[in-house]
Amino acid sequence: MDAKNQSIHQTQDLRLAQQIVLARKRIQITQLQLAQILGVSVRTLESWERGTRRPSSAAQTLLKLFIQNPNFVVRYLTY
Q1: pTM summary value
Q2: Per residue of the chain (79 residues), what is the pLDDT tens digit?
Q3: Which domain holds residue 11?
């Protein structure tokens, strides 16, 4: 991957990270609660929120849904 594409991916990762944090805070849930809902460890969620680790394609799809409608995801994925 060339430097330009790498920079674009890093920017997209950081934007996704910021959106995850904002959506989570908007509905006032903790990292632990969101991690449990998504079925990942808190450490994984933390790395996504910092932008240091890129979620899998499936996780990205779920996170995009969470960003658009966090209450929907919480309501239907909470046992």
Answers
A1: 0.83
A2: 676 655 555 667 679 999 999 999 999 999 999 999 999 999 999 999 999 999 999 999 999 999 999 999 999 988 6
A3: 3-77
Burial class (CB in 10 A: 0-12, 13-18, 19+), 20: buried
CATH of the domain at 9: 1.10.260
CB 3 within 8 A of CB 10: no
Q: Rounded to an integer, what distance in angstroms lies between the CA atom of residue 31 and that of residue 76? A: 18
Domain count, the chain: 1
Element at 27 (helix H, strand E):
none
Phi-psi group of 56: left, alpha or beta (phi > 0 → left; psi -120 to 50 → alpha; rest → beta): beta
